[in-house]
Amino acid sequence: MKNFTPPPIRPGIHPRTGLGYRIDHGVRSAAPCLFVFFATLVLSAPLNLPGQVELMPALVMGTVFLWSVFVPALMPSIAVFVLGLWADVLSFGPAGVMLLMMLIVHGVALSGRYTLARVNFFVLWLVFGVVMVGVTALQWVLCSALALHIVEFLPFVFETVLSFGSFPVLYAGFVWTYRFVVNNTDRS
Amino acid sequence: MPVSIQFRQALGKLVLPALILVACGVILLGKADRALVERLRMQTADLLAPAYSLVAWPQAKLRWLSGNLQDIRNLEAENIRLRAENESLRHWYDVAAALADENGTLKANLHWIPDNAPTFVSGRVVRDTSGLYARAVLLAINADTSVRKGGIALDGAGLVGRVTEVGKRSARVLLITDSSSRLPVTLESSHAAAIMAGDNSPLPRIIFYPQDNVPIEGERVVTNGEIESLPAGLPVGHVHYVRPGQPVVVPAAALDHVDILRIFDYADSVAPPDAPGRVPLPPPVGGTLSLPAQFQPHADQGLHG
């Protein structure tokens, strides 16, 4: 059984500070942001996946939510902002809407993190679902307002359901990344 | 710079609200200056276009392979069907050849003015940029091809859409199914003019058709020469009633799976000549209207004549 507690600090033993160590550490810390970055990029390519358009917000929102709740240090607000701009540039919807949604999800997760980080997984799932319903409703309202007519409602429902359904997978991915990518610098 | 902990905490709390405000600003900016946002997106798409075509290539190969395998499976039935179809087509070929001859003779007798052959370029669709609220595709083009805004996109079977933005290496084609697409069309059998309006569904609606001359189920829909840059008679699809009183167009082009597009440039195919007797008024700048040159009083005439 592997023990994840940090090694005791004794005089004479210092953390490694070489260039390689720093690069390694940096890449590991940037893993969640890099995942969002590349997920956005790959899902904007012509893969012809069914539901590809709705999958992108689902994955991005779930990832931002999870990391903002548990490890906000690796998903800072500025990074969410930059990733939101990136997602907006790659999608052809109204500008800024995706950005605003990501920031709101991040903000909700950040403000409730002391409660959310302690609750049962299923409660967390439910909370995420409620947040997604709210955010997608906001997206629909904004899209309708910016297009000056009522846009179709069903794709947004599909987007909510898809993000709700992909949450457990993202959670498993998050746990794995947190244990074996972010916190495993000593074994490299 | 040494900053007190309280100050730093206060700053940290302000970051997120500030960013949300900036996001609202971005939404407003996107609404106010669409051109800027579109240019940014087109530049990104231009940069990524080679990568997208890399993704598209194995897909095309795979589709080709699976199509081949399916073809092999029902080769026998296909052969029988093709033989029958070939016979019927041969008959129609004779009819068409005879009609083309007759048409040529008649046109020669009538001193028919031949239509201008439009120029066109063909390109591969590298990305479907359809979102929740738009239907559009991105086309890879060369820097030296003359694709212009307003170009008409057709695939092998019919009208696909119009070019709305042109970048250096890619062009965006708004499909006829997009909710902002409105095209004047003619219904071929009932000779009625109507507007084909996309609504983001695969079947664009027919609106503004004359109430005493309703569209007939199954009749062909072609473009109408009402607007410049879109000539009359391009095939669009056929009429279908999804329910009584709601006619839609079933597009002839395979819009769910656009692969290769031809972009036609009809921009100045029919330019109206200057009408004599009609005075072209300059746009009223500064609220004053000036007379055209030939009506302007000459200053020296007034002095010496």
Q: Secondary-structure map with pairings?
A:
The complex is a heterodimer of chains A (188) and B (305).
Chain A (H helix, E strand, L loop, with lengths): L18 H11 L1 H13 L8 H19 L6 H14 L6 H15 L1 H4 L4 H27 L6 H29 L6
Helix pairs in contact in A: 2-3, 2-4, 3-5, 3-8, 4-5, 5-7, 7-8
Chain B lengths: L4 H28 L1 H40 L1 H36 L8 E10 L7 E5 L11 E3 L4 E8 L3 E6 L6 E6 L4 E6 L7 E3 L12 E4 L11 E9 L2 E6 L8 E6 L33 H6 L1
Antiparallel strand pairs in B: 1-2, 1-12, 2-5, 3-4, 3-12, 4-5, 6-7, 6-9, 7-8, 9-10, 10-11
GO biological process, one term (chain B): regulation of cell shape
Family (chain B): Belongs to the MreC family.
InterPro entries (chain B): Cell/Rod_1, Cell/Rod_MreC_2, MreC, MreC_beta-barrel_core
Walk me through what this model shows.
The complex is a heterodimer of chains A (188) and B (305). Chain A has one domain. Helices cover 70% and strands 0% of the residues of chain A. Chain A contains 8 helices and no strands. The mean pLDDT of chain A is 85. Chain B is an alpha+beta fold and 305 residues long. Chain B has 3 domains: 13-54, no CATH class; 74-110; 121-269, Thrombin, subunit H (Beta Barrel), CATH 2.40.10.340. In chain B, the strands form 2 sheets. Chain B has a 6-stranded antiparallel beta barrel. In chain B, strands 8-7-6-9-10-11 form a 6-stranded antiparallel sheet, with no helix packed on it. In chain B, a hairpin with a 2-residue loop joins strand 10 (235-243) and strand 11 (246-251). In chain B, helix 1 (5-32) packs across helix 2. Chain B is extended and about 95 Å long. The N and C termini of chain B lie far apart (84 Å). The interface between A and B is large, with 41 and 37 residues.
